[in-house]
Amino acid sequence: MGCLVSKKKPDENKKIDIRVVNVDEAHKKIPDDVSDIIEKYPMPPIKDYDSSDRFTLQHKFFRYIWQSNFSSPIEEKLLSPDFKVLDVGCGPGTWILEMANEYPNASFTGIDHRTLFKAEPPSNVTIEYNDLLTTLPFDDNSFDFVFMRFLAYEITEERFEKNVIPELVRVLKPNGYLEVMDINIQGGNEGPVAQEFTSAVQSFYNSKGINSNITQKIKKFMNSTNIVDVQVLEQFHPIGSWDEKIGEVALKDWILRLNHIKINVQKILGINEERYKYSLKSFEEEVDIFQTYWISKRIFGKKKMIDEEN
Ligand SMILES: C[S@@+](CC[C@H](N)C(=O)[O-])C[C@H]1O[C@@H](n2cnc3c(N)ncnc32)[C@H](O)[C@@H]1O
């Protein structure tokens, strides 16, 4: 298998409701170097999906889709000793443990406010329990690379802009890279059921002060700090089995996500459990008809050197 998303055209006769992108537009956005990919990282095993830890499978899914664990230009520097990485909201540590194993010379610190990390950390990994919404217990300019993945919908927009990004920039060394990765709540080519779910999930987040379009704003937030040369990369991946096998993993992940916030979504939609299950079933069928996409983003940039600051 060579492509992340094949170049096949959607059926011209099929009525597709295009809310975000059409399929051809999405394909144009897939960078050449990943559209003809050498599979460094294999596809996650679909059959094990339900029985495995959800974060681990999510990790494998996105690693396969991006064929990398990060996009900042730090690959070579990671080989040198003294390179310091901070993983913000490290959860069970799937990313940090894999990175620490791949780059044994670098040292890694993971922070989280929950004790999800259960492994015995290797010698180049330290895990600390800190709340990201407070001042972090690190000096200014401590890390060469600060990475934060899948936290955008856990933090209000105000906190994200005013506390989180500035705090991550504070602990980043000049010339170091800050990278934030997350998914868009709204997919491409959503059918009516997906649109209904998306609107409900958006209302749920909005009611908590969380911006469901936050991925569109991260570049601006970074630009308003000492971060320069900000780049935004996007990957479009199919949901369902209409294109590539990997879409089946994406579909299962969506179903798990929707089940996770079921009570809230049910309330917003005003439907009972039975109706919810029926809608999920319809969603599963609909994604193949509409050729629904999922979009993830990596936003990264470099901290200015001190003499560049003025
Ligand atoms: C969806 S998980 C992502 C885990 C990991 N980054 C990954 O990519 O697999 C979000 C993580 O962020 C952590 N988190 C959320 N809010 C936090 C906060 N205010 N301070 C520290 N960690 C937080 C959660 O405990 C959880 O482990």
UniProtKB/TrEMBL annotation:
<dbReference type="Pfam" id="PF13649">
    <property type="entry name" value="Methyltransf_25"/>
</dbReference>
<dbReference type="InterPro" id="IPR041698">
    <property type="entry name" value="Methyltransf_25"/>
</dbReference>
<protein>
    <recommendedName>
        <fullName>Methyltransferase domain-containing protein</fullName>
    </recommendedName>
</protein>
<feature type="domain" description="Methyltransferase">
    <location>
        <begin position="85"/>
        <end position="176"/>
    </location>
</feature>
<dbReference type="InterPro" id="IPR029063">
    <property type="entry name" value="SAM-dependent_MTases_sf"/>
</dbReference>
